[in-house]
Sequence to fold (194 residues):
Amino acid sequence: MFKKIVVIAGPSGSGKNTVINQIIQQYPHAARLVTATTRVARPDERDGVDYYFFSIDRFDSEESQGHIVGKRFITLFGGIHYGIYTPDLEQKLQTASVIFAPVDISGAEWLKDNYNATTIFIVPESLAEYRMRIHARNPEMPERELEERMHITEREVQVDSNRYDYRVVNTGGGLAQTSAQIVEILQKEGYNLG
Fold:
């Protein structure tokens, strides 16, 4: 039996979504898990494609029905909830050969416990390089938000990343190399990317 779910995690801005998209372009039977959030959609994001964008009431209702698992709460912007949306997961399990889940440690552990997922954490080359990349991506970001993101990232890199099966260093933004390393891991772990 082939494994189906792989977690690709990493700090915000680590390149995890770009890596997932690169691998899915290469292997069209693979799919990306779409998770739920209470944050507001950015102008370039689409509901049901990037995230399921729920109000707090809708998120709570979905969670009480068992449709949200592996939940996390972050304090940025007054507090945002994220979680695995099980209707999306169940649909992808029926149609995809491999499902890439861009979730944090809560979701990673839930998917490992329930679906034997392989968990991979993308580590920035250094925290200083990561700070420069985040600042270059959004030069108008308030200093307080940048510091809060750095605090979250330091915890993810120094504590949470050790709880994943694999750590892959994203050297200097070399996402093609990072994608190739992840494909090698998946082949070794018995995933059917074909």
Remarks:
- The mean pLDDT is 90.
- The radius of gyration is 16 Å.
- The beta strands are 5-9, 30-32, 36-37, 52-53, 68-74, 80-85, 98-101, 118-124, 166-170.
